[in-house]
């Protein structure tokens, strides 16, 4: 079966109705708007618990920083987007999905991101809260729209994405001066993404939280390679290298690891990522499963979990949330990766991303059914 985190082809949502070739992802949007200014959301500021902590005053288990938006996914499979008649609306964005996945597994989770001051932004706030994710650090940016993402569903391994993030996505307007560094330092896991490195001021903010974190606890860089999000994709490796200096865990599929390291062979990619200073390198290899290598020499080479794929999008985010869970529990590396694989497989067997994130009972049941 496809890997629990299949790399879906991406297409640009341009003004013309014809999509561009796969992996040229980004999107057009309405006419240019005024330059953005940041406006606090009173509802977001009123999140539960003391400032910088989960309910009860304890630090968050997981703080994720990066994309949030709305997924509009077809309710028809095997139908091109131009012929789709009905869509489902779901919370989306990789960092948001990771936070939801962690919350579903019983973790206290929060998100650092930005939306537009629009109805879709209000929906994102409501959905985050319903999923148990603290949204106090999700604020709006005047003049920009909450991103939308459409996909086409052609199982088992073809799920083109169409991103609507023009003139600029609000999540790229996170500024270093807006961040709660005490909360970032205290969190048991900090999850950052490669998309956050793709443009300023988000790049500076991402590097600032990583530096402030000082490699405390579990500090993850999800390589999250989306070439069309980068004005100059050739710059990505240098920015990845700078971020990896502050991370303890690097996660990516084989293409993403290749962008970060310049290598193509999974074990070589893992070694190169470890050479940047991380303690754990996780390389997702499609139908070959997942290779995880720790600095102490521990290796886990785990096959995929067989499921009937409905929509592979979001499986990697489920893997990420479950990876955080396993690392926080303190499981050995193989058990952690097997658990994360199963969480990703469950999402691949469902339509949505955020609302498809599994509970512990569902992951345990799949692992039991799959056997040793």
Give Rg in angstroms: 19 Å
> What is the spatial order of strands in the main beta sheet?
3-8-7-4-11-12-13-14-15-16
How many DSSP helices?
11
- Poorly predicted ranges: 1-49
Secondary-structure element pattern, one letter each: EEEHEEEHEHEEEHEHEHEHHEEEHHH
Can you offer a commentary on this structure?
With 372 residues, the chain is α/β, with parallel strands linked by helices. Helix content is 31%, strand content 22%. The protein has helices at 42-45, 94-104, 119-130, 181-186, 202-213, 236-244, 254-261, 266-275, 315-329, 333-348, 360-370; strands at residues 10-13, 26-27, 37-39, 62-65, 69-74, 87-92, 109-116, 133-142, 148-151, 161-164, 189-193, 218-222, 249-253, 280-284, 290-294, 299-302. The strands form 2 sheets. A 10-stranded mixed beta sheet has the order 3-8-7-4-11-12-13-14-15-16, sandwiched between helices. Strands 2-1-10-9-5-6 form a 6-stranded mixed beta sheet. β14 (280-284) and β15 form a beta hairpin. The longest helix is centred in the last third of the chain and has 16 residues, at 333-348.
